[in-house]
Design goal:
Blueprint: E1 2-9, E2 11-15, E3 20-22, E4 27-28, E5 32-36, E6 43-51, E7 58-61, E8 64-66, H1 71-89, H2 96-100, E9 103-110, H3 126-141, H4 148-152, E10 166-169, E11 182-186, E12 194-200, H5 210-220, H6 222-245, H7 248-268, H8 278-294, E13 299-303, E14 309-314, H9 315-328, E15 339-341, H10 351-357, E16 368-372, E17 379-380
Parallel strand pairs: 7-9, 15-16
Antiparallel strand pairs: 1-6, 1-17, 2-5, 3-4, 5-10, 6-9, 7-8, 10-11, 12-14, 12-16, 13-14
Helix pairs in contact: 1-3, 6-7, 8-10
Bound molecules: ligand DP6.
């Protein structure tokens, strides 16, 4: 049996991908840009094993066996095996031939609750696993090179998790998608002060998955067409410039405007799609009141296909803003930790600030927060304790 274990991060788009021009190849109607979150707080670990003893391909997600026949997973498996064969016939990796015909077992776990709604595809976090499986299989088969093309076929947004730091997914214009690729804009070390706060607003499952949602938007929303053609190209340039210069004012404003426009295209979809709930709306107004108090953009929000908020801020603002969130959304005493991730210190709040922001207290509106920062891309793990499959090729009890 040959085994490889890899870990991969989650990414959050600040210029959103919404809409495909080719459903099968997963080619987007606009470019997008994301920040890769640190794996110390949010990571997916996947072990892939190949063995002559296995009688079929199998996959386990968070401890439960899942359907290996999912079309996207099948297409990823097919593509990666095709690449490995091609490489073998051109005289590449010798050891690969032995395992290429073997069946594989894939086992994957998250270190964060799926309820955090961070992998927004219809198949839940399976998309992230798909792409991580591609990465891990590539290591197993000794295939290097351009993987984001295959990863994209697992889930569009997941291809941006191929790199750390700040990543753009260039839409490309070729019909075969060969130029629709993820590319690193800046490494994770570029903006050391940047902090990211995930406010988990609700554990309820969202109603419309992103795959189906964006399809309806492409079919019915004139605003989405306008956005893709006339807004995003300029915004991508401005966003890259803001990141390069570490200009938080520009970065924050663009992030909020782009999230708002994405949700506006959802409302412009017919029938309309609502991802934001009342808690999301309260967070939006809290952020604007907080920034209004200071007369500058000190925090910025972004929302994907669900009600949870992702807040961007800089280290000097973190403690105070967390304190403000706690005041406005006091935790319900259910024993669960309210704050997870990077440490947050106490911060005294001035009376002026309190009266500017504390207009509307909503106990229990936020279940918990995860504090994190930009982080590195996927990596193969040499740590054997992370290996999820036992000597029999089945998930270990802990997986
Ligand atoms: C709102 O990547 O989940 O998170 O390609 O159909 O799997 P599929 O969709 P998916 O869409 C993510 C949409 C988004 C915005 C983003 O991450 O850019």
């Amino acid at each position: 049996m040959k085994k490889v274990t890899c870990t991969a991060p989650v990414n959050i788009a600040v210029i959103k991908y919404w809409g495909k021009r080719n459903e099968k190849l997963i080619l987007p109607i606009n470019s997008s840009l994301s920040v890769t979150l640190h794996q110390d707080q949010l990571k997916t670990t996947t072990t892939v094993a190949a063995s002559r003893e296995f009688t079929e391909d199998r996959i386990w997600l968070n401890g439960k066996e899942d359907n290996i026949n999912h079309p996207r997973l099948q297409s990823c498996l097919r593509e990666i095996r095709r690449l490995a064969r091609k490489r073998r016939s051109s005289g590449g990796h010798g050891g690969v031939s032995r395992i290429l015909n073997d069946k594989v077992h894939i086992c994957s776990v998250n270190n964060f609750p799926t309820a955090a709604g961070l992998a927004s595809s219809a198949a839940g976090y399976a998309c992230l696993v798909l792409y991580l499986s591609v990465y891990t299989l590539a290591k197993l088969y000794g295939v290097e090179g351009e993987l984001s093309e295959i990863a994209r076929q697992g889930s569009g947004s997941a291809c941006r998790s191929m790199y750390g730091g700040f990543v753009q997914w260039l839409m490309g214009d070729r019909a075969d998608g060969k130029d629709s690729l993820a590319q690193q804009v800046e490494a994770e070390s570029h903006w050391p002060d940047l902090r990211i706060l995930i406010l988990v607003a609700s554990a309820e499952k969202k109603h419309v998955g992103s795959t189906a949602g964006m399809q309806t938007s492409v079919e019915t929303s004139p605003l989405l067409k306008f956005r893709a053609e006339s807004v995003v190209p300029g915004r991508m340039e401005e966003m890259i410039e803001a990141i390069r210069k570490k200009d938080f004012e520009a970065f924050g404003q663009l992030t909020m405007k782009d999230s708002n426009q994405f949700h506006a295209t959802c409302l412009d979809t017919y029938p309309p799609i609502f991802y934001l709930n009342q808690v999301s709306q309260r967070i939006i107004s809290l952020v604007h009141r907080y920034n209004g108090h200071y007369g500058q953009t000190k925090v910025a929000y972004s929302f994907d296909a669900g009600p949870n908020a992702v807040i961007f801020t800089l280290e000097p603002t973190l403690n105070e803003f967390v304190e403000v969130v706690k005041r406005c959304f006091p935790p319900e005493a259910n024993g669960d930790p309210y704050l997870k991730g990077l440490p947050v210190g106490p911060a005294p709040l001035s009376q002026e600030l309190l009266s500017a922001v504390e207009t509307d207290v909503c106990p229990g509106g936020i279940c918990y927060m995860i504090v994190t920062q930009p982080g590195p891309g996927p990596a193969e793990s040499a740590d054997l304790s992370l290996d999820l499959l036992g000597p029999d090729g089945l998930p270990k009890p802990s997986a």
